[in-house]
Design goal:
alpha+beta, 49% helix, 15% strand
Length: 228
Amino acid sequence: MERAHSSEELRAEMDKFARQSGFEHFAYVLTISAPSLRLQHHVINGFPLQWHERYIAREYFKIDPIVQYVQNSSLPAIWSDEKFHTGESREFWDEAEALGLRAGMSFAVHGQPGLTGLMSLSRDKPLNLPSAEMAALIGRAQMFASMLNDAVVRIDLPKLLPEQSIAMTPRERECLKWSADGKTAWEIGQILSITERTVVFHMNNVIQKLGASNKIQAIVRAVSLKLV
């Protein structure tokens, strides 16, 4: 994955890992969500196409208990857990199982602010593994998910966020960096040996270039875009 240059190569690696681990299906989703950024989902799909199309068309991400779980946890989600099979999600699971997604596990990767990766492995047979084998499988899959997430961010994120090419002057970047560190305009002026008014001028330019409505939004967006 460190040598990969395309999503196709990453998909091939996912397919190989899934099969070596005893799964027929796999999927990865990178969710990009941050203030003043349009919500995006980048998908590498190895689930049945019928399920993928149905999932998107019916907006199952709104009721998918795995998606809701990983928003607040980095722990692996084993699909067989009872906490994922309650309420309105029962019909969701029935449809998934009918298409061969009977058992599985999902792994969240929370990287830089505004980015969440989710890798899932699935198969038609139950996951009746001895505890030691299950622990080893979870460990390997979590490591693979982390490496996959890093590769996707390296390969695909620049194409998903063209804003990364935003042109800022060296002084604007300096002011943005110190603002992200919590410094006031006056303090930044003292550090850079410029006036407070000049700092404000540069920060206003940054806010405009990032399409933000205030300094806080500009900082959050800059962090999401790895500009600081």
